[in-house]
Amino acid sequence: STICVHGLGYIGLPTAAMLANHGHQVTGYDSDETVVQSLANGDIHIDEPGLRAFVTQALESGHLTVSTEVEAAKYQIVAVPTPFDDETKEATLDYVKEAGEAIAPHLREGDTVVLESTVPPGTTVEVLQPTLEKSGLTAGTDFALVHCPETVLPGDIITELRQNDRVLGGVNGVSTQAAVRLYESFVEGDIYTAENATTAEFVKLIQNTFRDVNIALANEIALVGEDYGVDSREAIEMANTHPRVNIHQPGPGVGGHCLPIDPWFLGYDSEQLDLISTARNINDSMPGHVIEMLREELGSLEGKRIALLGVAYKGNVGDTRQSPTLDLAAELQEAVADEQKAAADGGRSQSAGGIDIRLHDPYVEDQTLDLIGLEESVSDADAVVIATDHDEYEELPIDRFEEQMAGSLLVDTKAVLDVDVWTKEGFTVERI
Ligand code: SAJ
């Protein structure tokens, strides 16, 4: 079939390549000329294992072309960003609307439009449908309209795109079946059809909410455990031997572009978010807890040098979106500014220092972040915080740390270090 994929980002690009590599004729559309230009030159702008070869294969076969022009196609797939406004706690649906408006003039009878972007319940019908119907065609009768949420895990996108089960829901049964036929062409998992598009939207959101709330539970358990002097990770491992218990892992917060955001989408037209919003707030409070842990050992943070190892939002990826490490860095700066203000208000003299935060990450390539080498980052550090569970951090060079660091405090928020080994060498290892 001919397919036009809207948005060549984390989801749209792998999806377009997947469809092309399964024999479909695909146009990848993006409104950003630089994205399209670099892809046309064979440059893959998204950092994801295996994606370069996968997209190159699709481009070289001629089944995938990229363009800044929307084309008429049997299937229109929308995979555009739905950014979240942190102030209003609402989704920005402008890109969904724009996609609909871009598709409308090309829409023909018998076409199918699929929305893959994660959206608040009701968006397919209330936001996308009216913009598409400006074409004069009616959803459900003249063209099919369906929501089919993506569920892939960054770091394993290509495999999960193929293997995960999919849930899809259309504005009517004919719509749903039209989309089933498309996804059947590459999905090896099961395809489930929801009652309608709003249900499919809801399903996606509660999947990520489930994970977020469970991580909040793990984080709260860790905080309670600290009050009792209990190692929560050991306790969680023991608890999880029960056949119906599966507690998640505590950490310095929840990052990425999904879990910190999607639960709020459920509040779009509902006042019910109570446990869900509390869970969000617990997860958001974890960088603050790391600061408390540092203060407990170091006292004042003013004039201190702290190395933060791992800037990506999770292990073994280079993605820094909503990374807890960046929140931690910002909150450390604020904490020291508050210390200085309190000192000034109390008439005490201030040291000129501030706080020296050093960032290291073997995966992140962001030039704006001022990342430095591992040894340089820990050199003269009063404390090192391991904030992301990259595999590399399990094998940190103890002798170099001994030589380089000014202090001996390691805050291992993800429990990657062998505590006994490091303690034996004289380090203080604190875990969440
Ligand atoms: N985290 C914990 N403790 C845990 C598990 C994770 O603190 O026990 C943290 C991670 O460190 C990270 C954050 O949670 O900061 C999110 O990581 P993740 O691996 O749980 O999920 P994402 O955001 O990479 O991808 C999620 C996935 N959703 C679910 O597993 C339900 C993925 O399948 C979705 O496709 C993706 O969101 C999305 O795009 O919605």
UniProtKB/TrEMBL annotation:
Superkingdom to which the source organism belongs: Archaea
Record has NAD as a keyword: yes
Record-annotated UDP-glucose/GDP-mannose dehydrogenase C-terminal domain positions: 307-419
MF terms in GO: NAD binding; oxidoreductase activity, acting on the CH-CH group of donors, NAD or NADP as acceptor; UDP-N-acetyl-D-mannosamine dehydrogenase activity
BP-aspect Gene Ontology terms: polysaccharide biosynthetic process
InterPro entries in alphabetical order: 6-PGluconate_DH-like_C_sf (IPR008927), NAD(P)-bd_dom_sf (IPR036291), UDP-Glc/GDP-Man (IPR017476), UDP-Glc/GDP-Man_DH_C (IPR014027), UDP-Glc/GDP-Man_DH_C_sf (IPR036220), UDP-Glc/GDP-Man_DH_dimer (IPR014026), UDP-Glc/GDP-Man_DH_N (IPR001732), UDP_ManNAc/GlcNAc_DH (IPR028359)
Record's keyword terms, sorted: NAD, Oxidoreductase
Pfam families reported for this sequence: UDPG_MGDP_dh, UDPG_MGDP_dh_C, UDPG_MGDP_dh_N
Enzyme Commission designation: 1.1.1.336
Catalytically driven reaction(s): UDP-N-acetyl-alpha-D-mannosamine + 2 NAD(+) + H2O = UDP-N-acetyl-alpha-D-mannosaminouronate + 2 NADH + 3 H(+)
Family membership noted in the UniProt record: Belongs to the UDP-glucose/GDP-mannose dehydrogenase family.
Official protein name in the record: UDP-N-acetyl-D-mannosamine dehydrogenase
Native organism: Halorhabdus utahensis (strain DSM 12940 / JCM 11049 / AX-2)
